[in-house]
Design brief:
579 residues, Rossmann fold, Arc Repressor Mutant, subunit A, six-stranded parallel β-sheet, 24 helices, 17 strands, globular
Length: 579
């Protein structure tokens, strides 16, 4: 207790229902662990229940609690996710059905979207079903719209199959506690972490325990509520808890993570939000740190600047962006420089069809290999059944066979259809040309030709059209033979462990921290994103800024204009036009 600051001590000693608003880097997990240990020590027969949103977080929190309370308290501590705890409740009450697999849920959702009277896309049907399941209100009747009808169809399929999905677990647990067929957990205290991320059903599960006599503490930061699109209640949910449960309020305002300039800039930004629990955000660090704002002509120039920063040291360095697509240019440049990196929260550049086809064809030309041709034909739209017909029956190398006799594809190819035959013959002719150019040492023409072929199979506005341009330009600038260049590009992504530069979206970065952070695309039309509420976008930017311990770089494309968030944070005046 003596090592805690006064705000943390107040949270540990709080009695009755309580909301703790914890600013980034304020030591909330330590507060939870110390509070839990103190309660268990003061009440030798008391039982504690703690709730998190992920299994990893649950395991980590339980370990932290037992470090403080000792192993003797293990039998009196239960920590789990909301869904795992609800599942146990239903099993005890004899109400559990089989949990549908993700594939089964997808099948039922697709069937539901295809059988509504009014047309509805699968994406919209899924959104409607998830929204209805996140609310405690009675589901709307089927005739009120295709979304409501899709929900009822989906539930009908689930009921016929005798299955539940994850959302059903919590809703059924809440309804069962209300009608008495299931009982709340027998605990004296309930601790809920990341409470700003709870939706209406999850909050109802918590309040059912609070109303049954379980002393409840929510730990949350409404300023980091960035999952409104998942129906998280954020500020609204925390306010309702304060009102409904007549709960006390404690704030942890001290940030131990970020250097002075970083936390002050982030605090200025978040104070522009109106819907937030009133609180100060204060830094403890005396070191000034670095906040740097830069503008660039285009994404490649922006990525080149990131590479220069990464070359100073790739450990404890993260590149964050509002959308996954914005990370592509940086990933390409990191690969070209052989800098270790890992990418989470979205698909890698190299997992996209067009880049994979370009690299596959270049590899086929340089190594006379078979696999790249198959990848390219798939990318060009060749059907799987046609692909089988195009394969040489003697299992010989397709590439060698193509360039040897480009006008006569395998005899089986007659079964593939005229379009597939023409596609194969066309590619065979190009492969012959590229093979001759490669033999003559005219590598640049091979690279340009393969990239042009890939672009010809994409619409001009397709995002991978630009990626093909970037990939071609990058390969042309690299030194060494074509096989050497391809090996350099492939080397960083062959690493299995999470080492090197971290590439991720702002949403995926929540809960993490690094010494140096670079926020890409902090510009008009990107951050804030036009399709998302302004205050949620501001919170998202705040989350990104507060991931940085010592250095924060923010960049934007000159043609788009700087984000309003840079001005609100008071850092636009420090802008350095780098290109």
């Amino acid at each position: 207790m003596n090592s805690l600051n006064p705000h943390q001590q107040k949270a540990v000693l709080a009695t009755g229902h309580c909301l703790v608003t914890a600013c980034p880097g304020s030591g909330k997990t330590r507060v939870l662990a110390v509070r839990a240990a103190r309660l268990l020590e003061l009440h030798p027969n008391g039982k504690l229940l703690a709730v998190t949103f992920t299994r990893d977080a649950a395991t980590s929190l339980k370990e932290r609690i037992l470090e403080q309370a000792g192993e003797t308290a293990r039998q009196r501590v239960a920590v789990g996710t909301l869904h795992s705890l609800a599942l146990t409740q239903l099993k005890r009450a004899g109400q559990f059905k089989r949990l549908a697999s993700p594939a089964e849920q997808s099948l039922f959702m697709r069937r539901a979207s295809e059988h509504t009277r009014e047309p509805i896309s699968l994406e919209d049907a899924v959104g409607a079903i998830e929204h209805i399941k996140s609310c405690m209100d009675t589901p709307p009747p089927p005739h009120t719209g295709p979304g409501a009808e899709a929900y009822h169809l989906y539930q009908g399929y689930m009921d016929q199959a005798g299955m539940l999905d994850f959302a059903d677990l919590l809703l059924l647990a809440v309804l069962s506690m209300r009608d008495g067929s299931a009982t709340p957990y027998r605990a004296d205290w309930l601790l809920v972490d990341e409470a700003q991320d709870m939706d209406e059903v999850q909050m109802a599960w918590v309040e059912a325990h609070s109303k049954s006599g379980v002393e409840t503490m929510l730990v949350a930061d409404d300023d980091q509520a960035i999952y409104g699109w998942r129906h998280a209640m954020g500020y609204k949910g925390l306010t309702l808890f304060l009102q409904n449960m007549k709960a006390g309020l404690v704030t942890l305002p001290l940030n131990y993570r970020c250097d002075k300039q970083i936390i002050e800039s982030a605090a200025r930004l978040i104070h522009f939000n109106q819907e937030r629990v009133p609180k100060a955000v204060e830094g403890v660090a005396t070191e000034p740190g670095l906040v740097r704002v830069l503008s660039f002509e285009d994404r490649i120039a922006e990525a080149d600047a990131v590479i220069q920063e990464a070359l100073k040291g790739h450990k404890e360095f993260a590149v964050l962006a509002r959308t996954n697509q914005l990370l592509d240019a940086v990933e390409l440049k990191l690969s070209a420089h052989g800098i270790p990196y890992y990418r989470t929260g979205g698909k890698s550049l190299w997992d996209r069809e067009a880049p994979a086809a370009v690299l596959g064809l270049l590899q086929a030309v340089s190594e006379k290999s078979h696999a790249g041709i198959v990848t390219a034909l798939h990318f060009a739209g060749t059907r799987v059944t046609a692909m089988d017909a195009l394969m040489p029956s003697d299992n010989s190398n397709l590439y060698r066979k193509l360039i040897a006799n480009m006008n006569e594809p395998p005899a089986k190819a007659a079964k593939a259809g005229s379009l597939e035959r023409e596609r194969l013959i066309g590619l065979a002719r190009l492969c012959r040309e590229w093979d001759e150019l490669f033999t003559q040492g005219r590598t640049s023409l091979v690279i340009a030709g393969v990239a042009l072929w890939a672009r010809s199979h994409l619409q001009p506005q397709h995002p991978e059209h630009q990626i093909c341009d970037w990939l071609s330009e990058t390969l042309l600038r690299m030194r060494g033979s074509l096989p050497e260049r391809l090996r350099v590009l492939q080397r960083p992504r062959k690493r299995k462990s999470q080492e090197g530069v971290a590439l991720m979206t702002l949403h995926s970065s929540k809960g993490l921290e690094w010494d140096r952070v670079w926020l890409l695309g902090v510009e008009t039309g990107v951050l804030p994103h036009p399709d998302s509420p302004l205050e949620e976008e501001r919170r998202l930017c705040y989350v990104g800024m507060t991931r940085a311990r010592h250095e924060l770089h923010l960049s934007w494309k000159a043609s788009a204009g700087p984000s309003q968030f840079l001005e609100e944070a008071g850092i636009l005046g420090a802008c350095n036009p780098a290109a």
